[in-house]
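Weekly sync, protein design subgroup
Attendees: M.S., D.O., the rotation student, P.L. (late)

Item 1: inverse folding check
M.S. brought a backbone from last month's batch and wanted to see whether the design step gives back something sensible before we order anything. D.O. pointed out we never logged the input encoding, so this time it goes straight into the notes. Structure tokens as presented (425 positions):
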């Protein structure tokens, strides 16, 4: 395949052929401690509500881009916030800066911590915000789609160091240039918001989102650095300063993006969860599932379609009520106790999308909307229980997974309705 060919002056072949290769693998199985680093900046008004920002610090070989470019960005964010504290600012909510160990061998440090503190996190964590490697290029936005509108707003407020326009405009321009058809153009957006990607695996967000059911974001820059050094000895300071982010301006851009994200979440009177983008995303995923079933199969989409329709109505009602209450000022006449009750419904809504039984053959993964594919490594499968069963034409399992998905969507919809009632009461 063309994408597999290198640049050496020879013809590249993909077997079979006469050559034989003897491969000897030597692995080191010694045990070593893994060290997570946790720093806490206490909140003033809601210290028991946590904004968690994370990046890992361990690397294969040198790790200039993966993960040090993300780690130093996190450290710069922490330094900047500490300067603000010295100047008199204090966050309303507690901010946790976390630097994980053991990510490369298997997300060990973050997973152990997220498992050990699962119940505590489900009670207190507003969001987990992840980065990993970083480079020059475009803002990559992935995560929980209830935060899609919020991330778009952040992206519109950050200046791209190359173009002088917002990083949102840079991404929007690239995606519009890539869209070849009107349908592809329309598929770029949920309303006026750019789609954010769904999360599979491959970095430290996995346990927080897919096991604990916490709202999660993963943000980084990249796409213009050339690549080719991933997990190799060549991912060093020389490569990074000549190709990755030569003047570190995208490290600054990520610090600004993440810092803005953290501060807005930490100080919001009402957390910026919006549900119409999420409902639109689930509608797209439902359509993709229907495309998998080309002929009569006995699989009935009716329960899922009804659940998605109810979700869409509830999401629209919430977003409309929130816009009206913000416009007329009634939202901000509520007592601190009323706002706390509303915010709790919002940030704990993601947990309603999990199922205690987990996914078939891998119960650790509990999220019904996002999971890495069983055979895709890092790659995401959305609505994974139903999708993977339909892909292998296992309609019995697909029906059982549809029931679990519908139950989760119904619980999520009920949570949205409860939040709407808190706004209008």
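Designed sequence read out in the meeting:
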């Amino acid at each position: 395949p063309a994408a597999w060919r290198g640049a050496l002056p020879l013809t590249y072949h993909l077997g079979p052929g006469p050559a034989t290769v003897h491969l000897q693998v030597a692995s080191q199985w010694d045990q070593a401690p893994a060290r997570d680093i946790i720093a806490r900046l206490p909140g003033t008004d809601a210290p028991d509500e946590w904004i968690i920002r994370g990046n890992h610090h361990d690397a294969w070989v040198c790790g200039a881009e993966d993960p040090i470019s993300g780690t130093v960005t996190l450290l710069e964010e922490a330094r900047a916030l500490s300067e603000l504290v010295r100047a008199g600012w204090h966050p309303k909510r507690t901010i946790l800066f976390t630097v994980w160990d053991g990510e490369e061998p298997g997300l060990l440090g973050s997973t152990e911590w997220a498992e050990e503190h699962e119940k505590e996190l489900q009670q207190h964590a507003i969001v987990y915000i992840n980065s990993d490697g970083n480079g020059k290029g475009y803002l990559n936005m992935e995560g929980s789609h209830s935060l899609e509108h919020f991330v778009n707003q952040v992206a519109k407020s950050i200046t791209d160091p190359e173009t002088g326009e917002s990083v949102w405009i840079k991404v929007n321009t690239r995606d519009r240039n890539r869209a070849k058809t009107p349908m592809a153009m329309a598929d770029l957006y949920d309303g006026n918001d750019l789609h954010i990607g769904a999360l599979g695996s491959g970095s430290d967000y996995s346990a927080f989102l897919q096991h604990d059911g916490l709202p999660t974001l993963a943000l980084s820059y990249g796409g213009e650095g050339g690549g080719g050094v991933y997990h190799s000895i060549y991912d060093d300071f020389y490569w990074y300063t000549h190709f990755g982010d030569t003047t570190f301006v995208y490290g600054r851009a990520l610090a600004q993006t993440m810092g803005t994200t953290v501060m807005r979440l930490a100080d919001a009177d009402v957390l910026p969860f919006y549900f119409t983008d999420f409902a639109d995303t689930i509608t797209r995923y439902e359509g993709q599932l229907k495309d998998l079933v080309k002929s009569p199969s006995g699989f009935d989409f009716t329960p899922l379609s009804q659940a998605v329709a109810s979700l869409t109505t509830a999401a629209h009602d919430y977003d409309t009520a929130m816009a009206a209450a913000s416009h007329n000022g009634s939202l901000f006449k509520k007592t601190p106790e009323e706002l706390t009750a509303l915010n709790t419904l919002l940030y704990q809504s993601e947990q309603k999308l999990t199922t205690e039984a987990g996914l078939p053959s891998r119960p650790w993964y509990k999220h019904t909307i996002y999971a890495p594919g069983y055979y895709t490594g890092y790659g995401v499968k959305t609505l994974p229980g139903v999708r993977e069963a339909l892909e292998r034409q296992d309609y019995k399992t697909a029906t059982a997974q549809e029931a679990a998905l519908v139950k989760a969507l119904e619980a999520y919809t009920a949570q949205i309705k409860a939040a709407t009632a808190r706004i209008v009461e």
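Discussion: The mean pLDDT is 95. Residues 395-424 form the longest helix (30 residues).
Action: P.L. to compare against the previous round before Friday.
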